Amino acid sequence: xxxxxxxxxxxxxxxxxxxxxxxxxxxxxxxxxxxxxxxxxxxxxxxxxxxxxxxxxxxxxxxxxxxxxxxxxxxxxxxxxxxxxxxxxxxxxxxxxxxxxxxxxxxxxxxxxxxxxxxxxxxxxxxxxxxxxxxxxxxxxxxxxxxxxxxxxxxxxxxxxxxxxxxxxxxxxxxxxxxxxxxxxxxxxxxxxxxxxxxxxxxxxxxxxxxxxxxxxxxxxxxxxxxxxxxxxxxxxxxxxxxxxxxxxxxxxxxxxxxxxxxxxxxxxxxxxxxxxxxxxxxxxxxxxxxxxxxxxxxxxxxxxxxxxxxxxxxxxxxxxxxxxxxxxxxxxxxxxxxxxxxxxxxxxxxxxxxxxxxxxxxxxxxxxxxxx
Length: 373
What we know:
Layout: H1 3-7, H2 15-20, H3 24-31, H4 41-48, H5 56-71, E1 74-84, E2 90-91, H6 109-121, E3 126-131, H7 140-153, E4 156-160, H8 166-174, E5 179-181, H9 189-195, E6 196-198, H10 204-208, H11 210-216, E7 221-225, H12 233-250, E8 255-259, H13 278-291, E9 296-299, H14 305-311, E10 318-320, H15 329-334, H16 353-362, E11 366-368
Parallel strand pairs: 1-3, 1-10, 1-11, 3-4, 4-5, 5-7, 7-8, 8-9, 9-10
Antiparallel strand pairs: 2-6
Helix pairs in contact: 4-12, 4-13, 5-13, 6-7, 12-13
């Protein structure tokens, strides 16, 4: 049994018909419910419905209160380090897709160390190791050596790499990795297959069960999410939310997290099928916070500095800062004439780590540089 079995329960569920029938009093009943542990999956859908937008201010206040009660007024900062953009997959929306004619690069260990020194110099202590999917260009041994280098500079190392087997995740856990981020991209199995036309990523079920394999290997941070813009807002956020809830129940030792990445311009020119508005993003954050009180919610530099500043009090607990989605991109900032590769996507918030910290302070929150979870 896995989350795949859970998601099948909604295979023929009509999300639009259900949510369009939601009434104001149903939304208010949930907002006024003091026993939040009793919320059902249908209650979660109510909070994601169009009618809930009539009460978004009250929902936001409730989300803020729950967040402060569970996490205080602190925001953990992290940065991604892209080590390779070689990929065997054709994912229509991704700048690293194998069909895109881009300059490919895998960092050598000296370059990894240079990037680590730069990021560490910003004060960042939590790093996300990112690579495209190629076991040839980024073998397990290559990644282990990379982790060894990262552990010299950062107190927490998480992975966002190609899916592994449970025993492989255990090897990385023993090497010092503490967490995993993996986006299902779309929870719609048919849409997923049409978006991923080549490579190992075509296996929907194997990817869906990735966090469960890492959870069995004792990872203490498991982060999921859907790439917003590939399909309708409600069903994708709903499935990401119940996925996180499922992992929370199955792996009580782990801190579960969720991200809400919206599609950004990237090589290949893929155009979003739907537009996820700022207010819908706010709705997603608040609905998940009310549905799962104790969950990390991440917002990345895909979003603008202005938006990130405004949504800090709504439920966010983690933010990337000073990010680069280019392989070796931190070196490039120091040496403007050294172009190593194109990024996976164009980031939206180019503010420095110092500026992000200042923004958080001004919002009345404390930026946390060291992972305490």
